Write the structure tokens for this entry.
Amino acid sequence: MRYLLSCLIPLILLNCKGETEVQQLKTGTYRAVLEVQDDKELPFVFEVLSPTSLKIYNAEEEIEVDEVVYRNDSIFIATPVFEGYIAATFEGDNLKGSFIKESLDHIVPFSAEFENDKRFETQSKPTQDVSGIWETVFSKDVEGDAYIAKGVFKQIGEKVTGTFRTTTGDYRYLEGVMDGNEMKLSTFDGAHAFLFTAKVTDSTMEGQFYSGNHWKEPFAAKRNANYELPSADDLTFLKEGYDSLEFTFPDENGNMISLSDDRFKNKVVIVQIMGTWCPNCLDESKYYTKFYDTYKDEDFEIVALAFEYAKTEQKAFKSIARLREKLDISYPVLLAQYGDSDKVKAQEKLPMLNHVLSYPTSIFIDKTGKVRKIHTGFNGPATGEKYAEFVSEFEMFVELLLNE
């Protein structure tokens, strides 16, 4: 089943019998559920402000949605920037349908109940408190797939918020509960739908991570108040024999843009490796857009290289245009790859790098064209102090390069 939002017709439709008024969302709160593997429910909450606008809530995050379209007895809800959308029909005041990502052929069963703001239902009072720092390993016993993370959580009563930081970014704003000794956390942003469940003791947790209905993996964690991840500045680097970066990719107007163009000469340049489908890239792009608007007249440039999983070049450029419009991005966003966001293939487009480990990755280039630093991943606002630390270090390093 495929729906193209660009083909949807206005809210009030005409048929051969005259005007027909279609049912619309009622203002108020809805509890939404996505059905994932193992018969698990991935819940999130949204509030309808008007028939064509709503907010999705994940802990401190509020996602404003203004792309809500009705057709006959159906409703289509597209979250900002990302390709994924909800297609549903009304069942009284409730909704039933699917969350769809066309380019990846992902379809996840979806439902929403009106006048329900309870993200997770609990059966018993919490017997554990997960507040603190957790040294975590995902897919520990799966050869070649294991990776480390840092869980950072806060619990008040039964409510739990926090995130998992990895070497390549974070799992954004997680919200949930402690139900007895079971932790349940979820987030939904229109790109990713994540559910974490775990059995917790005073010093350990064992659980499962679900992404939509197409992926799951185990994780294990132990308390470690002093645990830190490796430096994000040491994970990606230039191969021996290289000290600079080279590329030529098209912008949305078909112009081929190279790092050797006059626009970038004798300037400090940040090359952002990203994708319009990537929530951490979205967080980073929001920050970069504000920073660029302040510094663009001071021998400073940013250029983004988009690696898109959209199946056609046209769809990939449409996603780029949507991102630029939503965030008011004035620096160039070039299409480096479409049809696949595979990191191995991405590295082939930038063969001077040892690998592309993460979306996003930022490459810092000085006024002489030399690569001075490569920062893997992005710790977004959900990481709190770590995000503030990134902003401070980023601005200090750019100022250093500008003053050279």
Q: What stands out?
A: Residues 1-18 have pLDDT under 50 and may be disordered. The domain at 5-114 is CATH 2.40.128 (Lipocalin).
